[in-house]
Amino acid sequence: MVPVKFMNCRPDHLSRWLLAKNCDMDFVAGVSTSLLIIICLWDKKIFATFLQSLGLNKAISIRYLFSVAHIITLFILISPTAGRAQQFEAEGQIIYSVTVKKMGKSIQHVKHFTIDRNNSLWKIRTTEDDQGNQLSSIVSYEEVGCDGTNIFYLEQQDGQKLQGMVDLKVFQSDHFAQALGRVMEGTAPRMEPSLIYPVWLALASGPYIASLTNNRVISPLFVQDGLMPEMKLPSKWNMHNTFFLDSMTWFSEGKYQAIGNYGEPELKKYHAPYDDGFLQAVFHVTSWTNSNALSLPGIFDLIEYEPGWVVDNVTNFNIGYTVIGRVDAVRELKMFSPIPNLTTKTSITDFRYNFGVRTISYLSSSNWYSEQQITEALHRRGLVPISEKSLHDKKILVVSILLLSLIFPVAILLQKNSRHKHI
């Protein structure tokens, strides 16, 4: 008979203990497989029953047993950790560094970050670290959350610092907002001074990457709030597992975003030889940490490159900026909402609705307006927003009408010619 100790030794208990010792998953699966085989071979009746159930000879059964046990063990390993891998709270520090050539020195910006992740939903906050920063800021914290369809941006300003900069009557007026908010369609944040993008890239980008249908990924280039369109670049990446990114490389197509003469965003070409494209940025997780059998990024970095000038036929390539992040603590996810909480009067711009060059803005101290609230407000005013899809549909309609207007006369002309030939 199989000893009681073997019967009470569950594979998932053994697997978790080995993972806690930083053992490789394949090694854990191999050990668990060996244990399963030993149990089967310990009692001939169990092994004979196993053979009979398979309808295979002994030699084939051994190989089959190894394969099946390995798959079962991997399933046991992944199943209990899959939920935890996408449900957690974490905090740490992120440091942005840039070299200002005119000043001849490097400037650092230090922020503390927290992240709540629940599968594809997430919320990230970065807080100013006044002691570690060389530049002062009136921003108290910035928070960005994704509900699976939309992204909510919040910039909360420091009330005490604002009081020293703004007239008291203006500060206390009903129209003065101490926070700025934005709502945009999407599931990936933009690279902004909040430095939320690198944190998302390391700890929450897995579902976004899994949903991609091509190799174009949102770029790590800085953009100006909601004024510039989202920019994607050709990329290559490696996943550490199903949940976390291990590394990524972006490639420039030789163009960059800029504001045109009439205030419209446009793409401009870099000077030669950079107009043919170049390495734009690289991301790496340089260290991993384990928490409750969960492997997460421990230290990560993001480096963005910029074209330099060609001097004496030598191409100079510059580092635009460097970001280094560190995870200090990981906890179990408790209360969670992907939408940032409003604590003061906030001026919110909703970029999901627009009227050509105009968008919807409103003041709120308690909640973000739902799509239904905005739609009802627009209907009361007799306004109809122009969505990107409706603009696209209108363009298709106009082009179709133009094509028909061209084809129709040609068809009539061809018909007349055919009649003349028939006569």
Which structural class matches the secondary elements? alpha+beta
Shape descriptor: globular
Tell me, rounded to a whole number, the average pLDDT.
77
Largest sheet: 14 strands, mixed
How many β strands by DSSP? 16
Q: Measure the end-to-end span.
A: 102 Å
Going across the major beta sheet, what is the strand order? 7-8-9-12-13-14-1-2-3-4-5-6-15-16
Order of helices and strands: HHHHHEEEEEHHEHHEEEEEEEEEEHH
The value of Rg in angstroms is 29 Å
Q: What is the share of helical residues?
A: 25-40%
What do you see in this structure?
The protein has 11 helices and 16 strands. It is of the alpha+beta class and 423 residues long. The strands form 2 sheets. Strands 7-8-9-12-13-14-1-2-3-4-5-6-15-16 form a 14-stranded mixed sheet. It has a two-stranded antiparallel ribbon with strand order 10-11. A hairpin with a 2-residue loop joins strand 12 and strand 13. The N terminus is likely disordered.
Fold topology:
Layout: H1 4-8, H2 11-20, H3 25-42, H4 44-54, H5 58-85, E1 87-100, E2 105-118, E3 121-128, E4 139-146, E5 150-157, H6 159-163, H7 168-171, E6 179-185, H8 196-203, H9 206-211, E7 216-218, E8 232-239, E9 245-252, E10 255-259, E11 265-269, E12 278-291, E13 294-311, E14 314-331, E15 346-355, E16 358-364, H10 371-380, H11 388-422
Parallel strand pairs: 6-15
Antiparallel strand pairs: 1-2, 1-14, 2-3, 3-4, 4-5, 5-6, 7-8, 8-9, 9-12, 10-11, 12-13, 13-14, 15-16
